[in-house]
Amino acid sequence: MKYALSLLIAGTALATPVWAEDLAVVGSWSSLPLHNEYEAPFWGTTLPTASGGKINVELTTHNQMSLGLGDVYPLLGQGVYDVAMTVADYAVADAPELEGLDVPLLALTADEARAMVDAARPMVADIYRDRFNAHVLAIAPYPPQVVFCNAEIANLADLEGLKVRASGRMTAKLLEALGAEGVNVSFSEVPGALQNGVVDCAVTGAGSGYSAGWWEVSTHLLPIPLGGWDSVVTAINMDKWNGMDADTQALITAEVASGFEDPAWASAQDALVNDIACLTGNGDCPSGEARSMTLVEVSNADFDRARDILTGEVLPDWAARAGGDWAARWNDSVGKVVGVTIN
Length: 343
Hints:
By secondary structure, the protein is of the alpha/beta class. The radius of gyration is 22 Å and the shape is globular. It has 2 domains: 168 residues, Bacterial extracellular solute-binding protein, family 7 (D-Maltodextrin-Binding Protein, domain 2, 3-Layer(aba) Sandwich), CATH 3.40.190; 136 residues, D-Maltodextrin-Binding Protein, domain 2.
């Protein structure tokens, strides 16, 4: 009997690596393409397979867990779960310096946006280490954050006097400077808010708005990136990370770059073109049925006005709130890439 039990134990040890790493992973919005096309396949299949069974993942999302969006990273730092990802702007109440990652209007293409992110990454790594006891693994984009309106608009100036849901604090400051009223509404509550007149317009990614059915409660689409690219930061609890051996750390670092981050960025630019086509019917829609929102053309005057407000008012305001040497660090990194200096 003892011999048989010994064989059973030995067999179990051979079947399950003694060095297996279990990861509890909390993804971003479960209904959106970033999660369904990139996060879920990577954490559910790609990384466990690449590890040869060394890494086991239990995956859920913050909305499935009913987590407050501002709680995602603080709970990560406390070790409630091992890995988490959500929009960086959701964490700026705890880390105002993090607003410098996703600045509106400075990147008009995916390549420009990634250059900004790469430049900001050392700052972001320091912020997550110091504020959230976490190590940054990846920064991936949602498509540019554009403006959905359930009101007739013909240009940027028509936002004046309207109530607009912003996608982040810096965007809210920009909207207020344009004469709009920034309103704080969670993503899931926006369709009802648009339908009931709580807001006239709302900012989110074109693809996110299409997937969430915002076209049902809005009529006009202004495709100016007033909300930046809504960078989604993937981070791992620092204690969990430091407890891993160097080979496991190297494997996760390499795989998350090639299997998640790079593909998400590669699709970002085409996604914007396709999403606008899906929302307006101007072009082919690969995601499903095309809708019939009115596409509002963005003029050079619109863009120039918004950019002047950004550099003259919004960025200096952020620098004052962030304090310390964050403006100087931003100027020496992101600012050099985009040709903007905060005075």
